[in-house]
Design brief:
This protein is α+β, with helices and mostly antiparallel strands. The chain contains three helices and two strands, in the order H-E-H-E-H.
Length: about 80
C-alpha cells in the first residue's frame, strides 16, 4: 500500500521483492503481508487496520518509511 507521496518508496519495495523472487499480490486476500510505504498519519490508522484485516492469517505487517530502509524493513 503506497501512501500519498510515497510512489518512489513503493517502486523500491516492488523491485526489492522482485529481486527476492517474491510475487506481488493482486488483493489483500491473496497477500501474506501488508507492506505500507510512506509514513502513516493518525488519520490512516482506521483504514489501514481494515485493509490489514483483509489479509489472511498468518500475516505480516511491514512499514517502509523511506527508500533507504527498504532492504532492512523487508528482512525478518
Amino acid at each position: 500500500m503506497s501512501l500519498p507521496g510515497a510512489t518512489e518508496q513503493r517502486l523500491a519495495v516492488e523491485a526489492e521483492l522482485c529481486e527476492r523472487g517474491r510475487p506481488l499480490a493482486d488483493s489483500p486476500t491473496a497477500a501474506a503481508a501488508l507492506v505500507v510505504v510512506g509514513v502513516p498519519g493518525d488519520d490512516d490508522a482506521e483504514w489501514l487496520g481494515e485493509l490489514c484485516g483483509g489479509v489472511p492469517e498468518p500475516k505480516g505487517y511491514v512499514a517502509v518509511p523511506a527508500i533507504g530502509e527498504t532492504g532492512s524493513a523487508l528482512t525478518p
